[in-house]
Write a sequence for this structure.
């Protein structure tokens, strides 16, 4: 058997023989993928618990309460009597917001005093609060329209004239690619690959670092006849293949079974995902070359891997970050994976617009070659620092 | 000297001499929250780029565009000749939204009809879309009511007095996170999660260290039920001692530094978080069963942070979770820790108001301590003793 084949088979035996690899390469990623997609399967967390504080108690205010209660997004769990009571319920976490109709509401309205409807949303929880905000605002504006219609009619203007006037400027929003604001589509497409990036990087540092820790790296070098490239590729390739299988499963899970938008070409997305696996491994190799210590390289990869969830700007845009921080957004492979996903799967635009992101992957491929000499040195004379 | 005190001192020595564990208990809680908060510290998403396709070219359409540009959320970067050109700008990542104003926009308004315009938004980031939505709704409302008042007084001269000004005000108040900032929303929860994770990671790593070199750390006389419990308690107290400063720093000073909302009583918050710390320490001792090596913790535990973040209900609320995920989230100390901490810190709840979370945390702490005892007594200790007797078994490359 040639040296390369020997190293390859040895690596396969290591991967299949130790439970920790099974957990890290299959159990954890699969569990997380299932959890994230299943948890948000409904798309939006509707029926947000909310309350109404009706201090007026007239037929008009009750009508508004009823309108609010009939909305899909709101679950009126409570009738509170005062602002303080409703605020306490919010602090206790029973409701995410409340809608307040002031005292003498109907009377003030009819006498033209211009009362104010106020709604409170607990912005501590972004998603439910934003949904409540939308429902509350719709209800308030609809009530307002109804009232203005009444007033206009008493003034002798016919409803036909007034109704179209109610909303002179009407801007409709169309969300391209995700019109229903499905939260799962927004989140899983970025978080699941980012989780893969973390595990891919950890596996590279862990498996190579173990060779140094247990002093088996010189043996590995002998098997490769002193060729560091052969040693590394033979060692890592079985993982690459394993991750390729996993990431293809991820693609079919997200875009076939879950039915997330895939407007562009399957071919380019597949290329991106396969390149992404290798780019992540190359990035980790580079880290391992710079810090040949098992624990240190794992720490750095953990730190960067977890920070990637924020740095890669899945939720908070890069252009809004501080300049000095936004630079770091571009050093991780997941950023390019995310950008290609947006262009190719979500928006389905021409590959021309994504050309640079693929080039970035290639840059990651070249990264470890700058540090290979150091990995070789450390492999030949392994020093373990706990 | 009793086993309890001896274990306490021994564990403190182990912690202070192991750079890996120091990293988890000092660097992680001290530096990480700063890095993390800095990423989101601009809080608001401002001036999202938008292109306008104006088929009307009237003074009203120009006024609409000017008003949109003046909002905090939107920045108009220019006009496109048609939708195709706008699309190309969006595809080239120059803008994230296109506003299309149809021909006859101003005329329709003049005739007293409702005049439509369409906003196309790119949907990769929901925060951008949210900004577009808020800004366009506000501008359309404000311009709309002005036009409406004009129109009505034109139609029926006297009606103006009836509908003078606004017949009904509508006002929104954001509670807790008053500025609706992103950092203030996500970070308080993440801080609690970091606290839990750094304890479990550190204890997992000590477990690995003890398993690898039992001759340095393991005492066979602890292998009785009483001995196991006392050494466990001594070890737990050592972590409790070490985590006090990072805990105060993370839950009080980090929010102070980054001006997150701080409406709660800082002492009550520390009292609240105590059972979560105990629960996390016990969970760490259970996790030791899986740590054959010091470095296993990275591979096995780091990624769970993502799962715990979602299980805590910070982004996807717990009331909307399927029962299976809700049950799973009930098992995580950080779930109740995050929930209670946010309510106290951000919404200004008292300890009594979060009693549900507080009780749940104590139940978890009790249950996990019991499980940790069983795991330590019947698995962790025996494996250490076995490893001590047969050092050859330890090497497992």
């Amino acid at each position: 058997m040639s040296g390369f084949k020997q190293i390859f088979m040895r690596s396969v035996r290591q991967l299949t023989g130790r439970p920790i690899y099974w957990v890290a390469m299959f159990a954890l990623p699969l569990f997380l993928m299932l959890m994230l997609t299943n948890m948000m399967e409904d798309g939006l967390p509707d029926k947000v618990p909310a309350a109404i504080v009706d201090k007026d108690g007239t037929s008009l205010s009750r009508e508004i309460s009823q309108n609010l209660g009939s909305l899909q997004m709101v679950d009126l769990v409570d009738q509170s009597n005062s602002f303080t009571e409703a605020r306490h319920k919010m602090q206790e976490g029973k409701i995410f917001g409340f809608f307040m109709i002031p005292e003498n509401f109907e009377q003030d309205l009819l006498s033209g005093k211009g009362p104010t409807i106020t709604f409170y949303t607990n912005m501590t929880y972004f998603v439910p609060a934003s949904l409540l905000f939308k429902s509350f605002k719709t209800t308030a504006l609809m009530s307002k329209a109804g009232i203005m219609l009444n007033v206009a009619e008493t003034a002798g203007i016919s409803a036909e004239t007034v109704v179209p006037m109610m909303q002179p400027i009407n801007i409709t929003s169309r969300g391209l690619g995700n019109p229903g604001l499905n939260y799962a589509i927004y989140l899983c497409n970025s978080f699941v690959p980012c989780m893969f990036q973390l595990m891919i990087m950890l596996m590279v540092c862990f498996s190579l670092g173990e060779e140094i820790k247990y002093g088996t790296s010189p043996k590995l070098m002998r098997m490769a006849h002193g060729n560091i490239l052969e040693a590394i590729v033979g060692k890592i390739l079985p993982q690459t293949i394993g991750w390729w299988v996993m990431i293809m499963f991820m693609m079919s899970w997200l875009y076939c079974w879950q039915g997330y938008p895939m407007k562009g070409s399957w071919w380019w997305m597949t290329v991106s995902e396969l390149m992404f696996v290798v780019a992540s491994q190359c990035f980790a190799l580079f880290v391992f070359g710079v810090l040949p210590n098992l624990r240190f390289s794992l720490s750095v990869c953990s730190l960067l891997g977890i920070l990637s969830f924020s740095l890669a700007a899945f939720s908070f845009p890069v252009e809004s970050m501080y300049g000095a921080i936004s630079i770091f957004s571009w050093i991780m492979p997941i950023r390019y994976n995310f950008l290609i996903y947006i262009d190719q799967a979500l928006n389905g635009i021409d590959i021309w617009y994504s050309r640079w992101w693929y080039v970035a992957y290639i840059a990651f491929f070249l990264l470890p070659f700058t540090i290979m000499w150091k990995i070789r040195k450390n492999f030949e004379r392994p020093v373990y620092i706990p | 000297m009793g086993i309890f005190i001896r274990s306490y001192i021994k564990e403190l020595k182990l912690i202070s001499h192991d750079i890996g564990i120091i990293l988890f208990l000092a660097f992680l809680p001290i530096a990480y929250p700063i890095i993390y908060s800095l990423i989101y510290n601009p809080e608001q998403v401002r001036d999202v780029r938008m292109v306008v396709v104006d088929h009307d070219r009237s003074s009203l359409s120009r006024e609409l565009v000017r008003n949109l540009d003046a909002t905090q959320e939107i920045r108009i970067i220019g006009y496109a000749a048609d939708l195709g050109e706008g699309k190309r700008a969006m595809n080239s990542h120059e803008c994230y939204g296109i506003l299309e104003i149809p021909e006859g926009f101003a005329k329709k308004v003049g005739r007293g009809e409702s005049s439509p315009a369409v906003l196309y938004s790119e949907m990769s980031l929901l925060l951008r879309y949210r900004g577009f939505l808020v800004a366009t709704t506000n501008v359309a409302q404000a311009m709309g009511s002005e036009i409406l008042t004009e129109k009505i007084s034109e139609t029926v001269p006297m009606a103006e007095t009836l509908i003078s000004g606004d017949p009904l005000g509508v006002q929104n108040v954001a509670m807790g996170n008053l500025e609706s900032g992103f950092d203030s929303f996500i970070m308080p929860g993440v801080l609690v999660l970091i606290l839990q994770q750094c304890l479990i990671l550190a204890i997992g790593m000590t477990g690995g260290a003890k398993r690898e070199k039992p001759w340095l750390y393991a005492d066979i006389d602890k292998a009785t039920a009483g001995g196991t419990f006392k050494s466990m308690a001594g070890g737990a107290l050592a972590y409790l001692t070490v985590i006090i400063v990072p805990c105060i720093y993370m839950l009080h000073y980090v929010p102070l530094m980054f001006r997150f909302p701080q409406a709660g009583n800082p002492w009550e918050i520390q009292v609240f978080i105590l059972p979560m710390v105990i629960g996390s320490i016990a969970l760490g001792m259970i996790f030791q069963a899986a740590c054959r090596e010091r470095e296993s913790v990275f591979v096995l535990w780091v990624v769970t942070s993502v799962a715990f973040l979602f299980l805590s209900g910070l982004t996807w609320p717990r009331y909307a979770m399927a029962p299976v995920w809700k049950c799973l989230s009930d098992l995580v100390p950080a779930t109740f820790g995050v929930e209670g901490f946010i309510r106290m810190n951000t919404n200004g709840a008292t300890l009594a108001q979060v009693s549900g979370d507080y009780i749940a945390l104590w139940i978890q702490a009790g249950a996990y301590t019991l499980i940790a005892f069983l795991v330590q007594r019947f698995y962790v200790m025996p494996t250490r003793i076995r490893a001590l007797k047969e050092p050859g078994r330890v090497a497992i490359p």
About this structure: The longest strand of chain A covers residues 169-176.
